[in-house]
Amino acid sequence: WRDWSSDVCSSDLLRELGEESGCTATHSTYLGCYHPANGSSNQLFHVYIAHNARQTGTITDTNEIISARWFAPNDVWQMIAHNDIRDGLTLTAFLWADAYQRGMLPPRSTP
User: Fold this and answer.
1) What is the pTM of this model?
2) What is the band of 9 on the pLDDT scale with cuts at 50, 70, 90?
3) Phi-psi region of 79 (alpha: psi -120 to 50; beta: other; left: phi over 0)
4) How many CB atoms lie within 10 A of CB 97?
5) Are strands 45-51 and 54-55 parallel, antiparallel or unpaired?
6) Nearest to residue 1, comparing CAs of 104, 96, 99?
7) What is the spatial distance between Cα 7 and Cα 42, in angstroms, rounded to a whole number?
8) Neighbours of 47 (CB within 10 A)
9) Which residues are within 8 A (CB) of 105 and not within 5 positions of it... i.e. 6 or more apart?
10) Potential cystine with 105: which of 3, 9, 56, 100 (Cβ 3.0-4.6 Å)?
């Protein structure tokens, strides 16, 4: 996840997706923004969901990601239940994406 400025365009997001995961997607939807360390940092993270994502290449930006794997949402919920996922950035993005997929979170206007 990255702190994107308000002038970012969809092609920038999709390019970054390719560099960091080796995936392509047809388009993205903005889910919202949040402060991951409210009170101790002014970081602001923007969360997007990529639609029709598929693996098409290898990860080229190995400074941020070493490997990537696909998981079904139910498998991720099991990992959360077993406390296997402890990263707040991942948890927030997954919870928002899952809520969006279930129709519980509407897409938001981009910042």
Assistant:
1) 0.80
2) low
3) alpha
4) 19
5) unpaired
6) 96
7) 19
8) 22
9) 31, 32, 96, 99
10) 100
Tokens 């938001």 sit on residue: 108
Q: Residue 17 burial (CB < 10 Å; 0-12/13-18/19+)?
A: middle
Distance of CA 45 to the CA centre of its chain: 10
Is 31 exposed, middle or buried, given 0-12, 13-18 or 19+ CB atoms closer than 10 A? Answer: buried
H-assigned helices in the chain: 10-21, 73-81, 88-101
Contact by Cβ (8 Å): 3, 43: yes
The tens digit of pLDDT for each residue in 74-111 reads: 999 999 999 999 999 999 999 999 999 999 999 888 76
Give the span between the Cα atoms of 13 and 29, in whole angstroms. 10
Tell me the two tokens of residue 61. Answer: 């930006």
Q: How many Å apart are CA 32 and CA 26, to the nearest integer? A: 19
Residue 24: strand pairing partners: 54
Distance CA 46, CA 111 (A): 9
